[in-house]
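Batch job 17 of 40 flagged for manual review because the log was empty.
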Amino acid sequence: MNEHERGIEGLGLFHAMAQHGVEQLAFWHEPSLGYKGIIAVHDTTLGPALGGTRFWDYPSERDAVIDALRLAKSMTYKAAITGLDLGGGKAVIVAASRPAGDVVPDREAIFRAHGRAIESLGGRYITAEDVGTSEEDMEWVRKETTHVTGLRGRSGDPSPLTAYGVYRGIKAAAHHRYGSDDLAGRHVAVQGVGHVGYHLCRDLHEEGARLTVCDIDPGRVERAEEEFGARSVDSDSIYSVEADVFAPCALGAVLDDDTLPALRCDIVAGGANNQLADARKHGLAIHRKGILYAPDYAINAGGVISVFGELKGWTAERARIKAGEIYGTLLQIFEAAERDEIATFEAADRVAERRLAEARHL
């Protein structure tokens, strides 16, 4: 348990909010519908807080709060480092909620309740898809609020653009480490082949990369094997696969005291949010191991670019071009880290924090 997590159990929610720099933490409960929602607004310096809604069966309500706090901060930094006029926020819905009588909750009712919770914030928070949610869920949210993106007929599912940005980020990491961004013949171990992981595998396969994959869903693994010729391993073994790149594309906090020593790769670059269980401790640990780490909020910014483009009326091509710029952003981070002799996560934080500081001054 790190310092931020101890804050929730020890000093309370306000201390935890202060530790994460969160402006607002909203709770909304409709027990008759089985809805328990948490919305974290991290920072609105650059604009309204944008961040997806995660629908997940958390081990505890404390875990749900921690996830919301961490993800919201990541969204602020993601928007800042990508040059978007947005703040950062995140919503989580506790999927295990059950109304009286243990009746299975109605999904539409839950997401319409979530829409009412979002509407109550008056535009400070804008939501979109995330883990466990879909375009259909966002359509139900829209029945209660206009503060929602990723809708049908507009930008839609942001996963393909997120994956494209991660693909471009892997190429940038390869260029920095190997002197060439050609991925033909390179071995990439992909953890999680759901929405983002699947599209990433497709982009990598088209360039000729070799793939090793894992996922908790056997059907997803079989699809990757059939379509991309991927080799599969179990979820525990993916960390020790000898590969050029390890690409975490499932849930966060996968790199910790137990998994980091097992890594046998040159580069960590993937689509998952908050890949480091403890940002500073494990960011420094991966740096000491000589592994090039692509900070998650920099490499996986394609999703927020997708929904920002929807808000601004961009064409799909313009959004794709913007996501492609992740390549240059990461090269600058890698070069700054090397020049200043610091870890890549520290270099990325400096870029994001500089933009936020400049905006606050204005």
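Reviewer: the log was empty due to a logging misconfiguration, but the result itself is present. Residues 159-354 form a domain with the Rossmann fold fold (CATH 3.40.50.720). Unflagging and moving on to job 18.
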